[in-house]
Amino acid sequence: MRPDMPAENVDHTAEAARLERTADLYPEDAESLLLRAAAHRELSGDRPAATALYDRLLASGTPLDNPHLVRALKASNLWEYGHEAEARAIIEGIRTAAPRDPAPWVIVAEALEAHDELEQAHETFTEAVRLLLADAPATPPRPTHPLLFGRHRVRRMLGADHDEWDALADSVHTLPISLDELHDPKRVWSLGSENPAELEAELIRLRAELGAYREALSRPFPVAVLHWPAPELAELLEAYPSLAEEYPSHEAHLATIESALRELASSGTGNLGIVTGTVPSYEAFAAAEGASPADATLLPQYATTLAARGRAVAWPPDPGAPCWCGSSAPYETCHGTPA
User: Within the chain, how many helices (H) and strands (E) appear?
Assistant: First the structure.
């Protein structure tokens, strides 16, 4: 699917089939490709086919980057077409495993919430927040924000008083409409009002909420810059010395990546990312293109292909997160410090 293609114009069945074929061609990227294919199967209404893709990943025997995420998505999908008992069992297994990635927690908690299991949803959100944010910095990492927002939303529906985690959710919320307003369970009543001012206020709130959902759900095609780790760059230049004009040194390569991304960001380009190359992968790409790996014009095409296969990592990282360059230093004290 092209980034500029409206969602309503997508043939989800055809897109799922395309992604499944791509996964067969690039088995090293099968996890990300098949997860996207399963999402299209769900959107097309073919939920059993989506479950089959989740099972394919779980039974593949290949270690997964995030098996808990695959199980969480499977549980959410199963519940939507009548397999509640199996979905609940998977959700309990995920809660027991206590993964350190926020995404599986968000999915299973929202599945419980969507089926009016508000107390269980609240317990799940709270378990995740305590596990992942107990030792977090004052500003929680961006991937954990949906946990805080989801917990706040469920607590509003339960009529619970604000606590310290709700206050933290408020502090990272950036929309003009407050979380209390967005998550007010009585808001829906105002839609039956005949007062134009009340209806206009509700439309403003709905637009803000829709903007938040679009931001959370949108995964447009990233503008990605190619990064070579030091050992890979050394191997690349040894095999193809002419590329030394592109990469005079590894330090210069890293500095060029950061400066290029900063320049793109300052020009208003959004959704920036970094893809990490390997020599075998690059050589396979060049062979598929019928070109020599020594051809420097292939490098941006290689980066674009990696991004299309879901290999891009968002830039910039959170200030306290490990730097994208692979060092153990936080981004803010490594490449996050302006030159």
Answer: 15, 3
On whether the CB atoms of residues 116 and 82 are closer than 8 A, the answer is no
What lies within 8 Å, CB to CB, of 73 at 6+ separation is 35, 38, 54, 107
Predicted confidence (pLDDT) per residue in 45-82, tens digit: 999 999 999 999 999 888 998 999 999 999 999 999 99
Rg of the chain in Å (alpha carbons): 22
* 107, containing H or E segment: helix 102-114
d(CA 266, CA 316): 13
The pair of three-digit structure tokens given for residue 328, joined into one six-digit string? 């153990």
Report in angstroms the alpha-carbon separations of 196 from 78, 123, 192, 202, 206: 42, 39, 11, 10, 15
pLDDT at 304: 85
Query: What residues in the chain have per-residue pLDDT under 50?
Result: 1-7, 216-219
Is there a contact between 277 and 1 (Cβ–Cβ < 8 Å)? no
Q: Backbone phi, then psi, for 291, in 5-degree steps?
A: -130, 170
Sheet holding 223-227, edge to edge: 223-227, 272-276, 313-314
pLDDT at 13: 92
Task: State pTM to two decimals.
Answer: 0.66
User: Using CA of residue 16, residue 19, residue 23, residue 24, what is the dihedral sign?
Assistant: positive
